[in-house]
Amino acid sequence: MASANGYLREKIRWRALELVFWPATLLPFVVTPDYLSLASQIAITALFALSLDLILGYAGIVSLGHAAYFGTGAYTAGLLAKHYWSEPLAGLLVAGVAAGLVGYATSHIIVRFRHLALIMLTLGIGLLLAEAANSASWLTGGADGLQGIRMSPLLDFKFDLYGKTAYAYSLAVLFLCFLLARRVIHSPFGLALRGIRENAARMPAIGAPSRAHLRKAYTIAAVMAGIAGALLTHTTSTVSLETLSFERSADVLVILILGGAGRLYGGIVGAIIYMVARDQFSGMNPQYWYFWIGLLLITVVMLLPNGILGGLGALYKKSQ
């Protein structure tokens, strides 16, 4: 127990690169002020990828339908702002709770399956919610999206076209959620999740109920994904069926593979690389930019099977 506590205390300590990375996220305000809207989208996508990393990288739950919770948060925030209360922070909280409830309800089914059956099950849940939103056009707007969303200022700061408030808001929420994820990962619960990922059948023998732990992790991930969806609604004042689409689930999986699953910063680094690459490639070739994204993914997987951070970590160990 003493060695385990010492291991966790060592892991929870902030490293020098971390202390450099987070202040560096403020540089877009000064260096690239014309790209703050893109920066806010990167922060939102990074939070979404971080939520997927909790269940995929640490608990071993492969999901092709994680957009179900992102979209739940987005639509909850949009409906709340349109019909009841347009204050962003309240909407963020309600959206996270709504996505968490959906995540908790579906987790009872998810934790019963592994491998291929799990992949198909998560895909089915995502498609089911997307089609439900499409069918309920009287509520969601269907294919036209949810119209008429008007957001109130955030602590007296309006959401402007330049994206200053949007980026500051998204970055602050990302950092707070990252602190939560970091604490969860570097805790006895996080160690148990990694044990379940490696061998779920043996963990109950040492007092770690596998299914209960997986349900908790899945619910936390759903809450974070819902918060990311609410951020998208607040910063763009729009919600569409794309927030629930398979493409969004696939994109976030690609992002996590690029950065490196199970690395905590993998989703954040992957989001930066993917979103910047997409912006540049789509500018060069609006029709065929997915070709270059595919080429980038193939290159990274072939040269760095564990993602960019995994490859850098391996190089660092060799240099020691």
Uncertain segments are none
Biggest sheet layout: none
What structural class do the secondary elements suggest? mainly alpha
| Count of helix runs | 14
Overall geometric form: globular
- Strand tally: 0
Cα-atom radius of gyration: 19 Å
Distance between the termini: 29 Å
Give the averaged pLDDT, no decimals: 87
Estimate percent helicity.
over 70%
Order of helices and strands: HHHHHHHHHHHHHH
What does this structure look like?
- The structure is a single chain.
- By secondary structure, this protein is mainly alpha-helical.
- It has a domain at 32-245 and 260-265.
- The protein has 14 helices and no strands.
- The longest helix is centred in the C-terminal third of the chain and has 27 residues, at 210-236.
- It is globular.
- The two termini are 29 Å apart.
Summarize the structure.
This protein is mainly alpha-helical. It has helices at residues 2-12, 16-24, 36-56, 67-83, 88-110, 115-135, 137-140, 164-185, 188-198, 210-236, 246-259, 266-284, 289-303, 307-319. The chain has a domain at 32-245 and 260-265.
